[in-house]
User: Fold Alanine racemase from Emergencia timonensis.
Amino acid sequence: MTEQREELRDTQVIVDLDKIEENMKLISRMAGTEISVMAVIKANGYGHGAVSIAPTLMKCGVKYLAVATLTEALELREIFPSYPLFILGYTPDRLLHHVVEKNITQTVFSLEQAQLLGSLAKGLNKPARVHIKVDTGFHRLGKEPSAAYADEICKICAVEHVEVEGIFSHLALVNEEENEKQYQTFCNFIEVLEHRGCEFKYKHIADSIATVDYPRYRMNMVRPGALIYGMRGFHIGFLPVQQALTFRTAIAQLHTVPKGEGVSYDYLWKASRDSIVATLPFGYADGYPRNLRDKGYVIVNGIKAPIVGVICMDQCMADVTDVPNVAVGMEAIIYGNGQDGSMTIEEAAKLAGTNKNDIIARIPARPPRKYISKNRF
Ligand SMILES: *Cc1c(COP(=O)(O)O)cnc(C)c1O
Assistant:
């Protein structure tokens, strides 16, 4: 076997590392020198491959690489022994020793968590680093600002061997009025805490959309995820980030389907004319939304070929009757940048009735990733 793993399958996720780098530089430049960037690479870097894109982000000088779970942090820590890592989510008490052992910065929202981290840190003879989470309305993680939570945070700040490095919240992005309410709630609470002697090096509330749309919410740290991958969810501001991902495959087989015959499970699509139907070796187990049946399409030889019939777990079919010189092995673009007529992530999200992050983050490990870069190869 001499092929690279990525060449062992025709269905591949191509990640343009130069685009990731350009996007990251645009974000850093927009943030400026006073604002630190926490680059969010949870869910395997939104499907792009966290471990493989991390060096590009590190090169751009991001302060932190952030993930959602301990498992994601440990995977990165194996490869990057010293780069600052942050866990945005909850880590159960029984697993907190890992974050201290591996120098991972943890989100906390209770004195009990901080005390446990403190005693683990003491035992391991190294500090535990945390950011405190405040719930300003989202009701996901963190506690709501209150006198009791203020007392609790003051106690957390006094726990030995625990370094409270930051405080953060998350916007629900309901509308401008609600955003402002959340932001003000957060700022007022920080003011109360600082008056009582708490200090926070980093204060942050902005995800990708807030970072671009609301400059004042950048505080002194921003947490972009989607932007890094070129997803343009903003609608007030603008940043010319570009989609870094292309999803492609190649035709496995061609069928001549006479008018009136059905294709795939339940024959839910029937040929309205004598047709040529291509079998494509990707399915919903490759993260392609199953509900794109009769909506999705691929680009073959520059022509739009509609996905026809039920999308199977590993394969689906496309009507390639109108594709000139269609042949087995011909490339089919599943998601592209749109310039070749291909379906963009944005369009896939719209057609599937979901959001862009869902479309990219759901692409599992099965299709191999292929990394391209003009600078490196
Ligand atoms: C996922 C996540 C982000 C990044 O969100 P994007 O919309 O992709 O920018 C930021 N903060 C928290 C807490 C998150 O969970």
